[in-house]
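So, can you check this record?

>
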Amino acid sequence: MWVQVIDPVNNIVLSALVAILPILAIFWALIIQKMKGYKASLVALTCGILIAVAIYGMPVKLALLSTANGIMYGLFPICWIILSAVFLFNITVKSGQFEIIKHFMASVTSDRRIQALLIAFSFGSFLEGTAGFGAPVAITAAMLAGLGFNPLYAAGICLIANTAPVAFGSIGIPITVASQVSSIPEMAISQMIGRTLPFLSLLLPFYIIWIMSGFKKTIEVLPAVLVSGGSFAVLQWFSSNYLGPALPDIIAGIGSIICLIICLKFWKPKNIWRFPNEHVPTIQASHNYSAAEIIRAWSPFILLTILVIAWGLQPVKQLFNSIGMVQFEMPGLHNTIADKNNILLPHIFKFNYLSAAGTSIFLSAIIAIPLVGLKFREGIKIFQSTFNQLKYSILTVASILGFAYVLNDSGMTITLATALSSTGVLFPFFAPILGWLGVFITGSDTSANALFGKLQSATATSIGLDPVLTVAANASGGVVGKMISPQSIAVAAAAGNLVGKESDLFRFTLKHSFILLLFICLIVLAQAYLFNWMIPEYQMLSPKTNPAMPDISNGFIYLLVLAGILIAFATFIIKTNRKRKIN
Protein backbone atom coordinates (compact mmCIF):
# COMPACT_ATOMS: atom_id res chain seq x y z
CA MET A 1 0.00 0.00 0.00
CA TRP A 2 1.21 3.48 -0.91
CA VAL A 3 -0.12 6.53 0.96
CA GLN A 4 -0.64 9.76 -0.98
CA VAL A 5 1.56 12.68 0.01
CA ILE A 6 -0.41 15.92 -0.15
CA ASP A 7 2.37 18.32 0.84
CA PRO A 8 5.60 16.84 -0.59
CA VAL A 9 7.78 19.94 0.01
CA ASN A 10 6.36 20.72 3.49
CA ASN A 11 4.81 23.98 2.34
CA ILE A 12 1.31 23.79 0.87
CA VAL A 13 1.80 26.85 -1.36
CA LEU A 14 5.05 25.52 -2.82
CA SER A 15 3.54 22.05 -3.17
CA ALA A 16 0.61 23.58 -5.07
CA LEU A 17 3.06 25.35 -7.39
CA VAL A 18 4.70 21.98 -8.08
CA ALA A 19 1.33 20.26 -8.56
CA ILE A 20 0.18 22.82 -11.11
CA LEU A 21 3.23 22.25 -13.35
CA PRO A 22 1.61 19.44 -15.41
CA ILE A 23 -1.41 21.69 -16.01
CA LEU A 24 0.86 24.54 -17.07
CA ALA A 25 2.53 22.05 -19.43
CA ILE A 26 -0.77 21.77 -21.34
CA PHE A 27 -1.05 25.57 -21.58
CA TRP A 28 2.57 25.79 -22.75
CA ALA A 29 2.13 23.05 -25.35
CA LEU A 30 -1.14 24.38 -26.78
CA ILE A 31 -0.73 28.15 -26.48
CA ILE A 32 3.00 28.79 -26.83
CA GLN A 33 4.23 25.79 -28.84
CA LYS A 34 0.90 25.40 -30.74
CA MET A 35 1.24 21.64 -30.69
CA LYS A 36 -1.37 19.31 -32.08
CA GLY A 37 -3.76 17.96 -29.47
CA TYR A 38 -2.36 14.46 -29.19
CA LYS A 39 1.21 15.76 -28.87
CA ALA A 40 0.22 18.27 -26.18
CA SER A 41 -1.64 15.58 -24.22
CA LEU A 42 1.37 13.24 -24.39
CA VAL A 43 3.64 16.05 -23.14
CA ALA A 44 1.29 16.72 -20.23
CA LEU A 45 1.01 13.01 -19.43
CA THR A 46 4.80 12.61 -19.40
CA CYS A 47 5.19 15.68 -17.16
CA GLY A 48 2.49 14.37 -14.79
CA ILE A 49 4.13 10.96 -14.45
CA LEU A 50 7.60 12.46 -13.84
CA ILE A 51 6.36 14.78 -11.07
CA ALA A 52 4.22 12.03 -9.52
CA VAL A 53 7.25 9.74 -9.31
CA ALA A 54 10.09 12.21 -8.61
CA ILE A 55 8.34 14.70 -6.27
CA TYR A 56 5.35 12.86 -4.84
CA GLY A 57 7.18 9.55 -4.46
CA MET A 58 4.56 7.54 -6.33
CA PRO A 59 5.97 4.13 -7.32
CA VAL A 60 6.59 3.89 -11.07
CA LYS A 61 4.41 0.78 -11.31
CA LEU A 62 1.43 2.57 -9.73
CA ALA A 63 1.92 5.63 -11.93
CA LEU A 64 1.87 3.47 -15.07
CA LEU A 65 -1.11 1.44 -13.87
CA SER A 66 -2.99 4.63 -13.05
CA THR A 67 -2.22 5.93 -16.53
CA ALA A 68 -3.50 2.69 -18.06
CA ASN A 69 -6.70 2.92 -16.00
CA GLY A 70 -7.28 6.46 -17.26
CA ILE A 71 -6.60 5.45 -20.86
CA MET A 72 -9.17 2.65 -20.55
CA TYR A 73 -11.76 5.09 -19.23
CA GLY A 74 -10.89 7.48 -22.06
CA LEU A 75 -11.50 4.76 -24.64
CA PHE A 76 -14.71 3.65 -22.95
CA PRO A 77 -17.11 5.31 -22.45
CA ILE A 78 -15.74 8.68 -23.65
CA CYS A 79 -14.33 7.77 -27.09
CA TRP A 80 -17.21 5.36 -27.68
CA ILE A 81 -19.62 8.32 -27.38
CA ILE A 82 -17.52 10.52 -29.69
CA LEU A 83 -17.14 7.80 -32.32
CA SER A 84 -20.86 6.99 -32.29
CA ALA A 85 -21.94 10.65 -32.42
CA VAL A 86 -19.72 11.54 -35.39
CA PHE A 87 -20.73 8.27 -37.11
CA LEU A 88 -24.39 9.29 -36.80
CA PHE A 89 -23.66 12.71 -38.26
CA ASN A 90 -21.60 11.26 -41.13
CA ILE A 91 -24.47 8.93 -42.06
CA THR A 92 -26.73 11.97 -42.34
CA VAL A 93 -24.19 13.75 -44.56
CA LYS A 94 -23.28 10.79 -46.81
CA SER A 95 -26.93 9.97 -47.44
CA GLY A 96 -27.59 13.51 -48.64
CA GLN A 97 -30.16 14.14 -45.92
CA PHE A 98 -28.11 16.90 -44.34
CA GLU A 99 -28.73 19.03 -47.44
CA ILE A 100 -32.43 18.90 -46.59
CA ILE A 101 -31.64 19.84 -42.97
CA LYS A 102 -29.66 22.81 -44.28
CA HIS A 103 -32.63 23.88 -46.37
CA PHE A 104 -34.95 23.48 -43.39
CA MET A 105 -32.68 25.56 -41.16
CA ALA A 106 -32.50 28.24 -43.87
CA SER A 107 -36.30 28.30 -44.02
CA VAL A 108 -36.44 28.85 -40.24
CA THR A 109 -33.58 31.36 -40.39
CA SER A 110 -30.49 31.71 -42.54
CA ASP A 111 -28.96 34.08 -40.00
CA ARG A 112 -25.88 32.47 -38.47
CA ARG A 113 -26.48 34.17 -35.13
CA ILE A 114 -29.88 32.60 -34.61
CA GLN A 115 -28.76 29.23 -35.98
CA ALA A 116 -26.09 29.24 -33.28
CA LEU A 117 -28.71 29.87 -30.60
CA LEU A 118 -30.98 27.10 -31.86
CA ILE A 119 -28.31 24.42 -32.34
CA ALA A 120 -25.29 25.23 -30.15
CA PHE A 121 -27.19 26.65 -27.16
CA SER A 122 -30.67 25.07 -27.05
CA PHE A 123 -30.25 21.75 -28.89
CA GLY A 124 -26.82 21.26 -27.30
CA SER A 125 -28.36 21.76 -23.85
CA PHE A 126 -31.01 19.17 -24.60
CA LEU A 127 -28.32 16.66 -25.67
CA GLU A 128 -26.29 17.45 -22.53
CA GLY A 129 -29.31 16.62 -20.40
CA THR A 130 -29.84 13.28 -22.10
CA ALA A 131 -26.44 11.94 -23.16
CA GLY A 132 -23.66 14.24 -21.93
CA PHE A 133 -20.01 13.10 -21.84
CA GLY A 134 -18.99 14.84 -25.08
CA ALA A 135 -21.98 13.94 -27.27
CA PRO A 136 -23.52 17.48 -27.30
CA VAL A 137 -20.37 19.19 -28.51
CA ALA A 138 -19.60 16.44 -31.02
CA ILE A 139 -23.04 16.59 -32.63
CA THR A 140 -23.69 20.35 -32.54
CA ALA A 141 -20.18 21.28 -33.74
CA ALA A 142 -20.54 18.86 -36.66
CA MET A 143 -23.99 20.26 -37.47
CA LEU A 144 -22.85 23.90 -37.47
CA ALA A 145 -19.78 23.08 -39.56
CA GLY A 146 -22.05 21.19 -41.96
CA LEU A 147 -24.34 24.22 -42.21
CA GLY A 148 -21.39 26.27 -43.42
CA PHE A 149 -20.11 27.86 -40.22
CA ASN A 150 -16.48 28.78 -39.96
CA PRO A 151 -15.19 25.51 -38.42
CA LEU A 152 -13.25 27.24 -35.64
CA TYR A 153 -16.28 29.30 -34.63
CA ALA A 154 -18.54 26.26 -34.89
CA ALA A 155 -16.41 24.27 -32.46
CA GLY A 156 -15.61 27.22 -30.17
CA ILE A 157 -19.20 28.43 -29.92
CA CYS A 158 -20.45 24.93 -29.14
CA LEU A 159 -17.88 24.58 -26.36
CA ILE A 160 -18.90 27.93 -24.83
CA ALA A 161 -22.63 27.23 -25.27
CA ASN A 162 -22.24 23.86 -23.56
CA THR A 163 -21.40 25.53 -20.23
CA ALA A 164 -24.92 26.42 -19.04
CA PRO A 165 -26.30 22.84 -18.97
CA VAL A 166 -23.26 20.86 -17.76
CA ALA A 167 -24.13 20.83 -14.03
CA PHE A 168 -27.44 19.05 -14.80
CA GLY A 169 -26.00 16.82 -17.54
CA SER A 170 -26.77 13.14 -18.14
CA ILE A 171 -30.09 13.21 -16.27
CA GLY A 172 -28.54 15.02 -13.30
CA ILE A 173 -25.67 12.60 -12.60
CA PRO A 174 -23.19 15.34 -11.48
CA ILE A 175 -25.61 16.40 -8.73
CA THR A 176 -26.29 12.81 -7.70
CA VAL A 177 -22.55 12.27 -7.22
CA ALA A 178 -22.16 15.57 -5.33
CA SER A 179 -24.95 14.47 -2.99
CA GLN A 180 -23.36 11.08 -2.39
CA VAL A 181 -19.98 12.49 -1.36
CA SER A 182 -21.28 15.44 0.68
CA SER A 183 -24.44 13.94 2.31
CA ILE A 184 -26.41 16.99 1.16
CA PRO A 185 -29.78 16.14 -0.46
CA GLU A 186 -29.86 16.19 -4.25
CA MET A 187 -32.79 18.59 -4.23
CA ALA A 188 -30.92 21.15 -2.10
CA ILE A 189 -27.88 21.08 -4.42
CA SER A 190 -30.17 21.28 -7.45
CA GLN A 191 -31.94 24.31 -5.96
CA MET A 192 -28.68 26.09 -5.13
CA ILE A 193 -27.25 25.52 -8.62
CA GLY A 194 -30.63 26.56 -10.01
CA ARG A 195 -30.21 29.89 -8.24
CA THR A 196 -26.74 30.44 -9.69
CA LEU A 197 -26.54 29.13 -13.25
CA PRO A 198 -29.69 30.86 -14.61
CA PHE A 199 -27.74 34.13 -14.39
CA LEU A 200 -25.13 32.56 -16.68
CA SER A 201 -27.85 31.08 -18.93
CA LEU A 202 -29.43 34.51 -19.34
CA LEU A 203 -26.07 36.04 -20.28
CA LEU A 204 -24.76 33.26 -22.51
CA PRO A 205 -26.80 33.83 -25.73
CA PHE A 206 -25.78 37.51 -25.76
CA TYR A 207 -22.16 36.53 -25.03
CA ILE A 208 -22.08 33.92 -27.83
CA ILE A 209 -23.49 36.25 -30.46
CA TRP A 210 -21.19 39.06 -29.32
CA ILE A 211 -18.19 36.74 -29.82
CA MET A 212 -19.43 35.85 -33.30
CA SER A 213 -20.47 39.20 -34.68
CA GLY A 214 -19.63 42.05 -32.30
CA PHE A 215 -21.78 44.27 -30.11
CA LYS A 216 -23.73 46.14 -32.81
CA LYS A 217 -24.70 42.97 -34.67
CA THR A 218 -25.76 41.42 -31.36
CA ILE A 219 -28.12 44.31 -30.63
CA GLU A 220 -29.75 43.68 -34.03
CA VAL A 221 -30.98 40.29 -32.79
CA LEU A 222 -31.63 41.34 -29.20
CA PRO A 223 -35.25 40.04 -29.23
CA ALA A 224 -34.03 36.56 -30.19
CA VAL A 225 -31.24 36.72 -27.61
CA LEU A 226 -33.64 37.71 -24.83
CA VAL A 227 -36.22 35.07 -25.78
CA SER A 228 -33.58 32.33 -26.03
CA GLY A 229 -31.70 33.18 -22.83
CA GLY A 230 -34.72 34.33 -20.85
CA SER A 231 -36.86 31.26 -21.56
CA PHE A 232 -33.91 28.94 -20.88
CA ALA A 233 -33.04 30.67 -17.59
CA VAL A 234 -36.63 30.68 -16.29
CA LEU A 235 -37.21 27.03 -17.21
CA GLN A 236 -33.83 26.01 -15.76
CA TRP A 237 -34.62 27.83 -12.50
CA PHE A 238 -38.14 26.40 -12.24
CA SER A 239 -37.27 22.78 -13.02
CA SER A 240 -34.15 22.72 -10.83
CA ASN A 241 -36.00 24.24 -7.86
CA TYR A 242 -39.29 22.37 -8.11
CA LEU A 243 -38.74 19.20 -10.19
CA GLY A 244 -35.20 18.12 -9.26
CA PRO A 245 -31.84 17.72 -11.02
CA ALA A 246 -32.83 15.24 -13.76
CA LEU A 247 -34.85 17.45 -16.12
CA PRO A 248 -33.58 21.08 -16.21
CA ASP A 249 -31.48 20.65 -19.36
CA ILE A 250 -34.16 18.74 -21.23
CA ILE A 251 -36.98 21.11 -20.30
CA ALA A 252 -34.93 24.29 -20.78
CA GLY A 253 -33.39 23.06 -24.04
CA ILE A 254 -36.67 22.09 -25.69
CA GLY A 255 -38.52 25.06 -24.18
CA SER A 256 -36.03 27.61 -25.49
CA ILE A 257 -36.16 26.08 -28.99
CA ILE A 258 -39.97 26.33 -29.02
CA CYS A 259 -39.96 29.89 -27.67
CA LEU A 260 -37.38 31.07 -30.20
CA ILE A 261 -39.19 29.48 -33.16
CA ILE A 262 -42.44 31.13 -32.03
CA CYS A 263 -40.57 34.42 -31.74
CA LEU A 264 -39.30 34.03 -35.33
CA LYS A 265 -42.89 33.71 -36.55
CA PHE A 266 -43.53 37.30 -35.47
CA TRP A 267 -40.06 38.84 -35.73
CA LYS A 268 -37.15 38.48 -38.15
CA PRO A 269 -33.76 40.22 -38.12
CA LYS A 270 -33.64 43.07 -40.62
CA ASN A 271 -30.25 41.96 -41.94
CA ILE A 272 -29.11 38.37 -42.46
CA TRP A 273 -25.65 38.04 -40.93
CA ARG A 274 -22.99 35.62 -42.14
CA PHE A 275 -19.30 35.23 -41.42
CA PRO A 276 -16.97 37.59 -43.31
CA ASN A 277 -15.85 36.15 -46.67
CA GLU A 278 -18.40 33.35 -46.31
CA HIS A 279 -19.68 31.99 -49.61
CA VAL A 280 -23.33 32.55 -50.39
CA PRO A 281 -25.12 29.26 -49.65
CA THR A 282 -26.02 27.11 -52.60
CA ILE A 283 -29.33 26.05 -51.05
CA GLN A 284 -32.09 26.52 -53.58
CA ALA A 285 -34.89 28.34 -51.86
CA SER A 286 -37.21 27.43 -54.73
CA HIS A 287 -37.15 23.76 -53.79
CA ASN A 288 -39.86 23.09 -51.26
CA TYR A 289 -39.38 19.88 -49.32
CA SER A 290 -42.44 18.12 -47.96
CA ALA A 291 -42.96 17.57 -44.25
CA ALA A 292 -42.29 13.84 -44.78
CA GLU A 293 -38.94 14.58 -46.46
CA ILE A 294 -37.93 16.91 -43.64
CA ILE A 295 -38.86 14.34 -40.98
CA ARG A 296 -36.89 11.69 -42.86
CA ALA A 297 -33.84 13.98 -43.01
CA TRP A 298 -34.08 14.63 -39.28
CA SER A 299 -34.78 10.95 -38.52
CA PRO A 300 -31.23 10.15 -37.28
CA PHE A 301 -31.50 12.94 -34.70
CA ILE A 302 -35.10 12.04 -33.82
CA LEU A 303 -33.93 8.46 -33.21
CA LEU A 304 -31.03 9.82 -31.17
CA THR A 305 -33.43 11.79 -28.99
CA ILE A 306 -35.76 8.83 -28.42
CA LEU A 307 -32.99 6.39 -27.60
CA VAL A 308 -30.88 8.59 -25.33
CA ILE A 309 -33.99 9.45 -23.30
CA ALA A 310 -34.84 5.73 -23.03
CA TRP A 311 -31.25 4.89 -22.05
CA GLY A 312 -31.40 7.53 -19.32
CA LEU A 313 -34.40 5.92 -17.61
CA GLN A 314 -33.35 4.16 -14.42
CA PRO A 315 -35.28 0.87 -15.05
CA VAL A 316 -33.66 0.54 -18.49
CA LYS A 317 -30.21 1.29 -17.06
CA GLN A 318 -30.68 -1.30 -14.32
CA LEU A 319 -31.83 -3.93 -16.79
CA PHE A 320 -28.92 -3.35 -19.16
CA ASN A 321 -26.40 -3.35 -16.31
CA SER A 322 -27.79 -6.63 -14.99
CA ILE A 323 -27.26 -8.42 -18.31
CA GLY A 324 -24.64 -6.36 -20.11
CA MET A 325 -21.92 -5.09 -17.80
CA VAL A 326 -18.51 -6.49 -17.03
CA GLN A 327 -16.63 -4.98 -14.11
CA PHE A 328 -13.33 -5.91 -12.56
CA GLU A 329 -10.80 -4.58 -10.08
CA MET A 330 -7.76 -3.07 -11.75
CA PRO A 331 -4.94 -5.54 -11.00
CA GLY A 332 -2.16 -4.03 -8.92
CA LEU A 333 -4.05 -0.74 -8.50
CA HIS A 334 -7.36 -1.45 -6.74
CA ASN A 335 -7.10 -0.69 -2.98
CA THR A 336 -3.34 -0.18 -3.36
CA ILE A 337 -3.32 3.60 -2.90
CA ALA A 338 -4.54 5.21 0.34
CA ASP A 339 -5.48 8.86 0.81
CA LYS A 340 -4.14 11.01 3.66
CA ASN A 341 -6.76 9.48 5.99
CA ASN A 342 -5.55 5.96 5.12
CA ILE A 343 -8.76 5.21 3.22
CA LEU A 344 -8.04 2.85 0.34
CA LEU A 345 -8.99 4.15 -3.11
CA PRO A 346 -11.02 1.68 -5.20
CA HIS A 347 -10.17 1.28 -8.88
CA ILE A 348 -12.94 -0.73 -10.52
CA PHE A 349 -13.37 -0.60 -14.28
CA LYS A 350 -16.99 -0.87 -15.42
CA PHE A 351 -17.54 -1.96 -19.01
CA ASN A 352 -21.27 -1.27 -19.23
CA TYR A 353 -21.46 -1.89 -22.96
CA LEU A 354 -25.28 -2.00 -23.07
CA SER A 355 -26.25 0.92 -20.81
CA ALA A 356 -23.51 3.29 -22.04
CA ALA A 357 -24.77 6.45 -23.74
CA GLY A 358 -22.52 5.71 -26.70
CA THR A 359 -24.39 2.48 -27.34
CA SER A 360 -27.71 4.33 -27.64
CA ILE A 361 -26.13 6.77 -30.11
CA PHE A 362 -24.56 3.92 -32.11
CA LEU A 363 -27.88 2.07 -32.22
CA SER A 364 -29.54 5.28 -33.46
CA ALA A 365 -27.03 5.36 -36.32
CA ILE A 366 -27.59 1.69 -37.19
CA ILE A 367 -31.38 2.08 -37.30
CA ALA A 368 -31.00 5.28 -39.34
CA ILE A 369 -28.93 3.64 -42.10
CA PRO A 370 -31.88 2.09 -44.04
CA LEU A 371 -34.21 4.96 -43.16
CA VAL A 372 -32.00 7.53 -44.91
CA GLY A 373 -31.58 5.33 -47.98
CA LEU A 374 -28.20 3.72 -47.36
CA LYS A 375 -27.18 0.07 -47.41
CA PHE A 376 -25.49 -1.50 -44.42
CA ARG A 377 -22.42 -2.14 -46.59
CA GLU A 378 -22.18 1.61 -47.06
CA GLY A 379 -22.71 2.09 -43.33
CA ILE A 380 -19.69 -0.10 -42.57
CA LYS A 381 -17.54 2.01 -44.89
CA ILE A 382 -18.78 5.21 -43.24
CA PHE A 383 -17.90 3.78 -39.80
CA GLN A 384 -14.41 2.87 -41.00
CA SER A 385 -13.86 6.36 -42.42
CA THR A 386 -15.23 7.88 -39.19
CA PHE A 387 -12.74 5.89 -37.13
CA ASN A 388 -9.94 7.03 -39.43
CA GLN A 389 -11.17 10.63 -39.08
CA LEU A 390 -11.06 10.39 -35.28
CA LYS A 391 -7.90 8.33 -34.69
CA TYR A 392 -5.84 11.27 -33.44
CA SER A 393 -8.74 12.56 -31.34
CA ILE A 394 -9.06 9.13 -29.73
CA LEU A 395 -5.34 9.20 -28.90
CA THR A 396 -5.75 12.70 -27.42
CA VAL A 397 -8.71 11.76 -25.21
CA ALA A 398 -7.08 8.52 -24.04
CA SER A 399 -3.86 10.35 -23.16
CA ILE A 400 -5.57 13.19 -21.31
CA LEU A 401 -7.63 10.76 -19.21
CA GLY A 402 -4.42 8.94 -18.34
CA PHE A 403 -3.03 12.32 -17.30
CA ALA A 404 -6.12 13.03 -15.15
CA TYR A 405 -5.87 9.70 -13.34
CA VAL A 406 -2.18 10.20 -12.56
CA LEU A 407 -2.86 13.65 -11.09
CA ASN A 408 -5.71 12.27 -8.98
CA ASP A 409 -4.01 9.10 -7.77
CA SER A 410 -0.70 10.77 -6.98
CA GLY A 411 -2.40 13.40 -4.79
CA MET A 412 -1.55 16.42 -6.95
CA THR A 413 -5.21 17.31 -7.44
CA ILE A 414 -5.83 17.23 -3.67
CA THR A 415 -2.74 19.40 -3.13
CA LEU A 416 -4.26 22.10 -5.33
CA ALA A 417 -7.63 21.74 -3.61
CA THR A 418 -6.07 21.98 -0.14
CA ALA A 419 -4.22 25.17 -1.09
CA LEU A 420 -7.42 26.79 -2.38
CA SER A 421 -9.41 25.68 0.68
CA SER A 422 -7.04 27.55 2.99
CA THR A 423 -8.25 30.95 1.76
CA GLY A 424 -10.58 31.50 4.76
CA VAL A 425 -13.46 33.95 4.37
CA LEU A 426 -12.60 34.35 0.68
CA PHE A 427 -13.22 30.66 0.09
CA PRO A 428 -16.69 31.24 -1.52
CA PHE A 429 -14.87 33.17 -4.26
CA PHE A 430 -12.38 30.33 -4.77
CA ALA A 431 -14.88 27.45 -4.46
CA PRO A 432 -15.96 27.69 -8.14
CA ILE A 433 -12.28 27.79 -9.15
CA LEU A 434 -11.85 24.41 -7.49
CA GLY A 435 -14.69 23.00 -9.60
CA TRP A 436 -13.24 24.69 -12.69
CA LEU A 437 -9.89 23.07 -11.98
CA GLY A 438 -11.49 19.65 -11.48
CA VAL A 439 -13.36 19.79 -14.78
CA PHE A 440 -10.29 21.09 -16.61
CA ILE A 441 -8.31 18.08 -15.38
CA THR A 442 -10.94 15.36 -15.72
CA GLY A 443 -13.20 16.77 -18.44
CA SER A 444 -16.27 15.94 -16.35
CA ASP A 445 -18.37 17.87 -13.84
CA THR A 446 -19.35 14.51 -12.35
CA SER A 447 -15.71 13.62 -11.70
CA ALA A 448 -14.95 17.08 -10.32
CA ASN A 449 -17.83 16.75 -7.85
CA ALA A 450 -16.62 13.29 -6.83
CA LEU A 451 -13.12 14.68 -6.29
CA PHE A 452 -13.90 17.87 -4.39
CA GLY A 453 -17.48 17.61 -3.11
CA LYS A 454 -16.47 16.40 0.35
CA LEU A 455 -13.64 18.94 0.62
CA GLN A 456 -15.97 21.78 -0.37
CA SER A 457 -18.49 20.74 2.27
CA ALA A 458 -15.93 20.33 5.06
CA THR A 459 -14.18 23.63 4.30
CA ALA A 460 -17.45 25.59 4.26
CA THR A 461 -18.52 24.10 7.59
CA SER A 462 -15.15 24.96 9.16
CA ILE A 463 -15.51 28.68 8.30
CA GLY A 464 -19.20 28.90 9.23
CA LEU A 465 -20.76 28.80 5.76
CA ASP A 466 -23.61 26.60 4.58
CA PRO A 467 -21.92 23.68 2.75
CA VAL A 468 -24.60 23.51 0.04
CA LEU A 469 -23.31 26.85 -1.26
CA THR A 470 -19.76 25.63 -1.91
CA VAL A 471 -20.75 22.14 -3.08
CA ALA A 472 -23.08 23.76 -5.62
CA ALA A 473 -20.33 26.26 -6.47
CA ASN A 474 -18.07 23.32 -7.32
CA ALA A 475 -20.57 22.20 -9.97
CA SER A 476 -21.32 25.75 -11.16
CA GLY A 477 -17.65 26.68 -11.52
CA GLY A 478 -16.96 23.39 -13.21
CA VAL A 479 -19.26 24.18 -16.12
CA VAL A 480 -16.99 26.96 -17.40
CA GLY A 481 -13.95 24.69 -17.14
CA LYS A 482 -15.53 22.30 -19.63
CA MET A 483 -14.83 24.56 -22.62
CA ILE A 484 -11.05 24.39 -22.12
CA SER A 485 -10.74 20.82 -20.89
CA PRO A 486 -8.33 19.07 -23.29
CA GLN A 487 -10.85 16.24 -23.54
CA SER A 488 -13.59 18.64 -24.70
CA ILE A 489 -11.18 20.42 -27.05
CA ALA A 490 -10.34 17.08 -28.69
CA VAL A 491 -14.02 16.23 -29.13
CA ALA A 492 -14.90 19.61 -30.63
CA ALA A 493 -11.87 19.56 -32.94
CA ALA A 494 -12.76 16.09 -34.21
CA ALA A 495 -16.38 17.03 -34.88
CA GLY A 496 -15.50 20.36 -36.52
CA ASN A 497 -12.77 18.96 -38.81
CA LEU A 498 -10.11 20.80 -36.82
CA VAL A 499 -7.89 17.83 -35.92
CA GLY A 500 -4.36 19.19 -35.58
CA LYS A 501 -5.65 22.68 -34.78
CA GLU A 502 -6.52 22.05 -31.14
CA SER A 503 -4.17 24.83 -30.07
CA ASP A 504 -6.20 27.37 -32.10
CA LEU A 505 -9.41 26.16 -30.48
CA PHE A 506 -7.85 26.23 -27.00
CA ARG A 507 -6.73 29.83 -27.47
CA PHE A 508 -10.19 30.72 -28.78
CA THR A 509 -11.98 29.49 -25.65
CA LEU A 510 -9.39 30.21 -22.94
CA LYS A 511 -10.14 33.88 -22.21
CA HIS A 512 -13.88 33.24 -22.28
CA SER A 513 -13.47 30.50 -19.69
CA PHE A 514 -11.67 32.93 -17.35
CA ILE A 515 -14.23 35.71 -17.91
CA LEU A 516 -17.22 33.46 -17.20
CA LEU A 517 -15.43 31.86 -14.23
CA LEU A 518 -14.97 35.31 -12.68
CA PHE A 519 -18.70 35.95 -13.24
CA ILE A 520 -19.60 32.73 -11.36
CA CYS A 521 -17.09 33.46 -8.55
CA LEU A 522 -18.61 36.89 -7.93
CA ILE A 523 -22.14 35.45 -7.88
CA VAL A 524 -21.17 32.80 -5.30
CA LEU A 525 -19.32 35.36 -3.16
CA ALA A 526 -22.41 37.61 -3.19
CA GLN A 527 -24.65 34.66 -2.28
CA ALA A 528 -22.39 33.86 0.67
CA TYR A 529 -22.41 37.26 2.32
CA LEU A 530 -24.98 39.57 0.69
CA PHE A 531 -27.78 37.40 -0.64
CA ASN A 532 -27.65 34.39 1.68
CA TRP A 533 -31.46 34.25 1.60
CA MET A 534 -30.94 32.49 -1.75
CA ILE A 535 -29.51 29.44 0.04
CA PRO A 536 -32.22 26.75 0.38
CA GLU A 537 -33.22 25.13 3.67
CA TYR A 538 -32.61 21.40 3.97
CA GLN A 539 -31.57 18.59 6.31
CA MET A 540 -28.42 16.55 5.88
CA LEU A 541 -28.90 12.98 4.74
CA SER A 542 -28.53 10.19 7.26
CA PRO A 543 -26.31 7.20 6.39
CA LYS A 544 -28.11 4.85 4.05
CA THR A 545 -28.73 1.23 4.73
CA ASN A 546 -27.90 -1.32 2.06
CA PRO A 547 -30.12 -0.55 -0.94
CA ALA A 548 -32.67 -3.10 -2.04
CA MET A 549 -32.01 -5.11 -5.18
CA PRO A 550 -33.38 -3.20 -8.19
CA ASP A 551 -36.54 -4.49 -9.83
CA ILE A 552 -35.59 -4.97 -13.48
CA SER A 553 -39.08 -6.06 -14.60
CA ASN A 554 -40.00 -2.44 -15.36
CA GLY A 555 -36.99 -2.27 -17.67
CA PHE A 556 -38.53 -4.91 -19.96
CA ILE A 557 -41.79 -2.94 -20.09
CA TYR A 558 -39.93 0.26 -21.00
CA LEU A 559 -38.02 -1.59 -23.74
CA LEU A 560 -41.24 -3.01 -25.20
CA VAL A 561 -42.69 0.50 -25.34
CA LEU A 562 -39.45 1.75 -26.91
CA ALA A 563 -39.55 -1.02 -29.52
CA GLY A 564 -43.13 -0.08 -30.39
CA ILE A 565 -42.20 3.58 -30.82
CA LEU A 566 -39.20 2.71 -33.02
CA ILE A 567 -41.21 0.33 -35.20
CA ALA A 568 -43.98 2.89 -35.65
CA PHE A 569 -41.49 5.63 -36.51
CA ALA A 570 -39.54 3.43 -38.97
CA THR A 571 -42.79 2.30 -40.63
CA PHE A 572 -43.89 5.90 -41.05
CA ILE A 573 -40.58 6.91 -42.67
CA ILE A 574 -40.55 3.91 -45.03
CA LYS A 575 -44.20 4.31 -46.11
CA THR A 576 -43.99 8.04 -46.72
CA ASN A 577 -40.79 7.56 -48.70
CA ARG A 578 -42.48 4.95 -50.91
CA LYS A 579 -45.46 7.25 -51.52
CA ARG A 580 -43.11 10.06 -52.49
CA LYS A 581 -41.33 7.83 -55.02
CA ILE A 582 -44.66 6.69 -56.52
CA ASN A 583 -45.89 10.26 -56.85
Remarks:
- The first helix runs from residue 12 to 19.
